[in-house]
From TrEMBL:
Coiled coil location: none
Pfam family of the protein (one): Sel1
Organism, as annotated: Chytriomyces confervae
PANTHER family (UniProt xref): DAP3-BINDING CELL DEATH ENHANCER 1 (PTHR45011)
Superkingdom of this protein's organism: Eukaryota
Protein name: Uncharacterized protein
């Protein structure tokens, strides 16, 4: 994932609150892990592909749900779970994987169905057999599977579909899946509209799509809505509303939303100033790999900014941020007598 980028909300260097945003295709959501969240454990990868089995365990005793709706519920459950725990090779992943193995025979996609094509395509992706994956996704997409359409979009955007990046094809597949209400596709198509990938830039359309995905609880879209209200991009600037969106995403483990919420509590922007809450969210974000949060914590402990001065803690946080490519943190680490980490 690319380094967090700080974006001033006002012109000029003084008095501006700077939030972090994700730049480029790293933000694209893909169940197959092609882009965006590409560091799951093997157990989490398997769960994301075969979450149909767990859907039978998680459903609320509603026997009226059909296979496809259960599978879609499981997609949402495990995308959220994997995104939250993507950097932790923990016992929970192993436990959930064992649960999958135990339950997989109870609910399987019907052979030949669009969901079956999705699972087959995903398995090929994990083996880096991209041509076969594309064939499976194409068949599923032609049958109307929004998951397959979304994966095809991700493959075209990454260049894995035809060994070259095709933004127009990516945008079209995202659009098709978004029109069926798939939150991650709405989010991805919104990114296309924001960045002009395969479609003309259209921030108004992007906001509509981000909001639609955010209303379904998609954390990346909630974060993007927070950014738009924080910056006044496509909407009237409102830091209080921005904080609400950031908090929704932060509660789902979105590291950059957690970072921005920490910034808001530090500055008292859109929320009541609170160093305690600032530290809470910075620490959450730092654990999730946010270089900006790690750097900011280092800065707070170096300068006794709301906390007791602790240069050892400062160096630890600067070192973590330096490992994540944060230039200023590297400089401060050296200035405090620390050694730059080897990558």
């Amino acid at each position: 994932m690319s380094e967090d980028k700080s974006v001033p909300t006002e012109s000029g260097l003084f008095g501006a609150v700077s939030y972090v945003q994700q730049i480029g295709t790293d933000a694209i959501s893909s169940v197959g892990g092609l882009l965006g969240f590409a560091h799951k454990t093997p157990a989490q990868d398997e769960l994301a592909a075969h979450n149909a089995a767990v859907a039978s365990v998680r459903k609320d005793d509603n026997d009226d749900d059909d296979n496809d709706s259960l599978i879609e519920k499981a997609h949402l459950i495990f995308e959220e779970w994997c995104d939250t725990n993507e950097r932790e090779d923990n016992d929970e992943a192993k436990t959930q994987y064992e649960l999958y193995l135990e339950q997989q025979s109870q609910l399987k996609p019907v052979p030949g169905s669009p969901q079956f094509k999705f699972v087959a395509g995903w398995r090929y992706l994990q083996k880096k057999k991209y041509a076969q994956a594309m064939d499976e996704f194409m068949e599923g997409a032609a049958a109307g599977s929004p998951e397959c359409q979304c994966e095809l979009g991700a493959m075209h955007l990454s260049g894995l579909a035809t060994y070259r990046r095709n933004e127009e094809a990516a945008a079209e597949y995202f659009r098709l899946a978004a029109n069926q209400g798939l939150a991650k596709a709405q989010f991805n198509f919104a990114l296309c509209c924001t960045n002009g990938w395969g479609v003309p830039k259209n921030e108004s359309k992007a906001v509509q799509l981000y909001r639609a995905a955010a209303d379904q609880g998609f954390p990346g879209a909630e974060y993007e809505m927070g950014m738009r209200y924080a910056l006044g991009k496509g909407v009237s600037r409102n830091e209080s509303v921005a904080a609400t969106w950031f908090e929704r995403a932060a509660n789902q483990g979105h590291a950059m939303a957690q970072t921005n919420l920490g910034i808001m509590y530090f500055e008292g922007a859109g929320v009541k100033k609170s160093i305690e809450k600032c530290l809470f969210w910075y620490r959450k974000a730092a654990k999730g790999g946010s270089a900006t949060a790690q750097n900011n914590l280092g800065d707070m402990f170096e300068n006794a900014d709301g906390v007791d001065r602790d240069l050892e803690k400062a160096k630890e946080y600067y070192k973590d941020a330096a490992l994540n490519g944060h230039t200023r943190a590297s400089e401060r680490l050296v200035a405090l007598g620390g050694s730059l980490p080897s990558k």
